[in-house]
Amino acid sequence: MPYLHYDHDVLKLEDTVLDELADAHGTPLFVYSESQIRDNFQAMQTAFVGVPHLICYAVKANSNPEILRLLAEMGAGADAVSVGEMWLALKAGIPPERIVFAGVGKRDDEIEFAIQQNIRGLNVESEMELQVVAEIAARLQRRARVSLRINPDIDIHGHPYISTGRHKDKFGIALDTARRLITEYRGHPQIQLVGLHAHIGSQITEILPYRKLGEVMRDMAVFAAQQGHRLEYIDVGGGLGVRYEPQGDERHFRHDWQGVNELAIEPKAVADALLTSLRQLELPILFEPGRSLVANAGVLITRVLYLKETGGKRFVIVDAGMTELVRPSLYSAYHAIVPLHWREGEAVRADVVGPICESGDFLARDRQLPPVQRGDLRAVLTAGAYGYSLSSNYNAGLRPAEILVHGSSHRVIRQRQPLDVLIK
Ligand code: LLP
Prior knowledge:
Number of helices: 11
Radius of gyration: 23 Å
Helix content: 25-40%
Bound molecules: ligand LLP
Number of strands: 21
CATH superfamily of the largest domain: Alanine racemase
Number of domains: 2
CATH architecture of the largest domain: Alpha-Beta Barrel
């Protein structure tokens, strides 16, 4: 049975009844399943079994300190994109040698922090950044551990906002420039080239891009070795997609999630596609999944405030919106929405919208919904990744609480923000 399931028409996450949490802690509310996160991480470990590897969780997907601690205890490393994420990872008990640092716009203080902490690798994204890293390392009298982020020019056929490995995207270093830098930085006193990195995008639902990525990375690693570098690892990024949309009719959710919350591609298939080319290098593989470790572990619980009909349209107005889950507004992303208590009655076709003063504030458009009335509780599914971490205080709203359930027990892993954060 999936961790999220109906028990006599009452929605449970593991053995915890969700409406009791909503009543006790208020809405909107993020709730996560510890067992689901554990299973997800284990599946990722198993996929690379037999090959030296490190799963560096992409902290940006969900940076709750308790979730980081859970993953740290299971042996995860971290993929960080700011000094804040590196700091959170270290505080959660992830040792520096399991942390990598990416990002096209690292500030000098962030580079300095990474060098001082002696993290596994700074994933450098441009020639100018490499020069700055060398200067900062010289000032600190250190040799920086650097990995070049390659732009392999691979199209994942996904949403343009989250495709990162095409020639025209802002990320990484073009192949010819990378080859030149690899040659020029041979034996450099301040730069130790320890790895190669790439991340081709997010919500990937095909295997082929990973196979191509493996080939590009292998060729570049062979070239680096020929130039006299001793690489320590190949970091292939993350990107594994999750199913948000049901394959059939949402009205059947009561008995069957119809593929929602499953991974779009199997971790083992991704690992095999990468390893086809990479295995021969005999180097550790770093993999940076974010979404696939946490998305399906989380739901966002919201309460129905009002029903409204205007301009020939129906709206269900709920107390969560783009401030809690921006994905529908930003990427036109689909998130399934289900009742916490299922009851019989007329289905309604409506937009599900939040309280924010923007017409772009919606969670679902033109959606067939089970019977709905004021006061009902609804769960927005697949909200564990890029939900809370992309939330905001827009309209002077307060970020919601987060709860981690395990079996029939639960604990608050972040309090709802108090009003005074708005003036601090
Ligand atoms: N590594 C790097 C360098 C990344 O930039 C990312 C995500 C990841 C790993 C993890 O990717 P994942 O396994 O989660 O796909 N806000 C968007 C997703 C943005 C992803 C940005 N980078 C969304 O809600 O769909």
